[in-house]
TrEMBL record:
Active site positions: 246 (nucleophile), 328, 330
InterPro entries, per database record: Anth_synth/Amidotransfase, CarbamoylP_synth_ssu, CarbamoylP_synth_ssu_N, CarbP_synth_ssu_N_sf, Class_I_gatase-like, CPSase_GATase1, GATASE
Originating gene: carA
Naturally occurring in which organism (per UniProt): Hominilimicola fabiformis
Short name of one Pfam family: GATase
Keywords noted in UniProt: Amino-acid biosynthesis, Arginine biosynthesis, ATP-binding, Glutamine amidotransferase, Ligase, Nucleotide-binding, Pyrimidine biosynthesis
Protein name: Carbamoyl phosphate synthase small chain
Annotated GO MF terms: ATP binding; carbamoyl-phosphate synthase (glutamine-hydrolyzing) activity
Metabolic or biological pathway: Amino-acid biosynthesis; L-arginine biosynthesis; carbamoyl phosphate from bicarbonate: step 1/1; Pyrimidine metabolism; UMP biosynthesis via de novo pathway; (S)-dihydroorotate from bicarbonate: step 1/3
Catalysed conversion reaction: hydrogencarbonate + L-glutamine + 2 ATP + H2O = carbamoyl phosphate + L-glutamate + 2 ADP + phosphate + 2 H(+); L-glutamine + H2O = L-glutamate + NH4(+)
Binding residues annotated for L-glutamine, in chain numbering: 45, 219, 221, 247, 250, 288, 291
CDD domains: GATase1_CPSase
SMART domains, A to Z: CPSase_sm_chain (SM01097)
Length: 350
């Protein structure tokens, strides 16, 4: 079925719908990963977004249920130049079309994804709709104006408190902002007991659990939409070591008095270079965010920067055991350059 991806600047890209057949609205972003499309589809950090894959052929190794980063997809739609209908891999369980149909996610192929990416790079991230047929400008505007991503954190956080590996140590209080399962897997590999809390949990409940470490996960959207979590972290400062990844990094930054800013088109993909300011080493990292930490107070110092644009990729408090990174050391699917950071996070609390 023919459909159009229409951007809020009026540009229209024609393609063919696959997966779920419905009209949707979302924030249009692009990701530069050549592989890992299943992890992209199930990463909660993409909630509320229309995700464009810059690599032209997607779906060639199929879908398997073991590599899910969440129980279900969270993005609004998936844009590809060409989908593969006949994947070849011994782990394959279904093709991309069947998976999106099962998950209720709209796919559109036949789009010139290179041209679309150039538009987003030049104009910045913007809203978009995918609509079937030839919708009028009025129909487009009605759907476009209905977008509200302020609730995506609460849409993707844990529904209730639960614990993993009861006999493990150290005990990690894990605040789920919309977590990838890869982060939890890496903590479990290191023997941690993990108590997972929803994003809106009060500090008093975490204190009752008596953890050794407070950890904030990745998640979707704007960190300013989670003021309750920022207040929770403020109340925990000085009582526990605190670490975070991605959205968790931004929440920690706000709690320490930093500012957050929105990037023009974000960092999405598995090939982003960051520099360790302590050693001078450069690592290739997986990233997925539209916001950054900026304007650090005197009590906070940068630990990593983005080699491409100089933005902040990591911070630590100068006197308290608080540290965080913007990128994803758990990778999932890769690269694995910075997995050692989990050992640094856990150092001193075993």
């Amino acid at each position: 079925m023919k459909a159009q991806l229409i951007l809020e600047n009026g540009m229209r890209f024609s393609g063919t719908v696959f997966g779920a057949e419905k009209n949707i609205v979302g924030e249009v972003v692009f990701t530069t990963g050549m592989t890992g499309y299943q992890e992209t589809l199930t990463d909660p950090s993409f909630a509320g977004q229309i995700v464009t894959m810059t690599f032209p052929l997607i779906g060639n190794y199929g879908i398997n249920l073991e590599d899910m980063e969440a129980k279900h997809t969270n993005l609004k739609a998936f844009v590809v130049r060409e989908k593969c209908d006949f994947p070849s891999n011994f782990r394959n369980e279904m093709n991309l079309d069947d998976f999106l149909r099962q998950q209720g996610v709209v796919g559109i192929e036949g789009i010139d994804t290179r041209a679309l990416t150039r538009v987003i790079r030049e104009a910045g991230t913007m809203k978009g709709v995918i609509m079937q047929g030839e919708p009028s400008d009025e129909e487009v505007n009605v759907l476009m104006n209905s977008l509200d991503n302020s609730h995506v954190i609460m849409d993707t956080t844990a529904e209730q408190v639960y614990t993993l590996n009861e006999t493990g140590r150290p005990h990690v209080a894990f605040i789920d902002m919309g977590a990838k399962q890869g982060i939890i897997r890496d903590l479990l590999k290191r023997g941690c007991k993990i108590t997972v809390f929803p994003a809106n949990i009060p500090a008093s409940v975490i204190e009752e659990a008596n953890p050794d470490l407070v950890f904030l996960s990745n998640g979707p959207g704007d960190p300013l939409d989670a003021p309750g979590t920022v207040d929770t972290v403020k109340q925990l400062i000085g009582k526990y070591p605190i670490c975070g990844i991605c959205m968790g990094h931004q929440i920690i930054g706000l709690a320490l008095g930093c500012e957050t800013k929105k990037l023009k088109f974000g960092h999405h993909g598995g090939n982003h270079p960051v520099k360790d300011l302590t050693t001078g080493n450069v690592f290739i990292t997986s990233q997925n965010h539209n916001y950054i930490v900026a304007d650090l107070p005197d009590t906070v110092e940068e630990t990593f920067i983005n080699v491409n644009d100089g933005t902040c990729e990591g911070i630590r408090h100068k006197t308290l055991p608080i540290q965080s990174v913007q990128f994803h050391p758990e990778a999932s699917p890769g690269p694995l350059d910075t997995g050692w950071l989990f050992d640094r996070f856990l150092k001193g609390v075993n």
